Fold:
Amino acid sequence: MYGSVSIAFQPIVCLDTGRVAGAEGLCRFPEDTRWTPERCFINASQIGRGVELELLVVHAALQAARALPAGLFVSVNVSSDALAARELLHLLDTAPIRTDRLILELTEHEPVKDYAATISLRTDLRDRGIRLAVDDAGAGFASFRHIVRLEPDLIKLDRELVRGIDQDHTQRALTKAVLGFTRDVGSSVVAEGIETAGELRTITELGVPAGQGYLLGRPSNQPRTWQSWGTPRGLGALAETA
Structure:
């Protein structure tokens, strides 16, 4: 717990081996707030303290990441406003883990106000070994504008695109298009929100390299659970802990 924020990590899994490759840090607030994390961020933004709250969560995630297995990458969500904050680079430069383990996920639900500035920041991040991801791809602001303009290192397919993909040829076609794009620009893909065996089978058959979702592992705030992710296991074993 850091101030009023705690962190739960959810595993991100290589779909060809079942190995946990990384973990996404998800913030949790005390139950007595009676608000979801999304509501907390909305309220903070409305009073002009949204970036301050985001930076608090990034700090908490970086500190908690010390308990993760050393080989895992660590991803955290940031808005374009937080990405542009001078304090963020200071947090990253003083992180207690190697910066080449870090991925910043830029959500697609909000617009990027200044793409030129964000692209410049992307260069600063890459100089530090930090990768940039576009989160919620296929469901948010201006569709794939973030992807085309930012050329991220990682693209995370939104759970609405993944849900029921084994039953919908349009979702499969869109996923194939994203995979083709990533091959051309040297990015990678993570499918979010995998919850059924059919979704997992289809995502794997399409060639998506990594996945995340309740079927593969629920978010956990227990360091003992995080440490178990450093031991190679098959997808079946991971699903049993979901």
Q: What stands out?
A: The longest strand covers residues 6-14.
